[in-house]
Amino acid sequence: MRSIRIAFAAALIMGLFMGTILPGQASAQAKRTITVATDATWPPMEMVDANKNIVGFDIDYMNAIAKEAGFNVVFKNTAWDGIFAGLPAGKYDAVISSVTITDERKKELDFSDPYTSVGQILVTPKNLKVKGLADMKGKKVGAQIGTTGAFEIKKVSGVELKTYDEVGLAFADMAAGRIEGVVCDNPTAINFALYNKDYKAKFKVVGKPFTQENYGIAVKKGNKELVDLFNKGIKAVKAKGLDKKFEQKWLR
After folding, report:
1. Distance of CA 224 to CAs 98, 220, 221, 228, Å?
2. What is the pLDDT of residues 74-102, one digit of tens each?
């Protein structure tokens, strides 16, 4: 019996050196890693915390998608201007960054199923008496460049659009009196106008969202495999009610 045990032990050691995977290791080693770009300047959806970690609703959601669909995810903080160009260039595999699914964007990109919905809303100084974007004629209104907020401002004749690389710069300009309104997604508007300690005494949210938009995860055109993988994860996240937990945590 001793000789049999020795032979078995020797075979096991040899197998390890030859790359044999022990039980429990296979699933971990087989997981692929997907790099996902995000512009972490859009609280509470994606932002950098005090410890310089990328956090937010989208980040929690993508981590949950990865867990449910069986892959590892690495986030890459990327400026919004040009974030989509990084997909065909191979700089990363996907973008999750409060990206509204639009017909125009679908010409160049493919999207996952929607994972949440938002709307555009107007934020102004508290002393400005307006009921909506149509009342901002003759005034300057800010938005982050290339966003649906900027697109909506362009639709209103007589309103001057001023674009910014980051939405936070638009709010800073409004606090300084250089513009008189900001249009952005309602969770971000609420975050800046109602919860930001520097702005909550100065700004107000005007009315209700005036658009209805779906967020999706963007990938390079034709990458059906990745779309299917994300959809699998989104379906599982919603089935388990994890999306509602993320809403309670981040969207208040």
Report:
1. 21, 9, 8, 6
2. 999 999 999 999 999 999 999 999 999 99
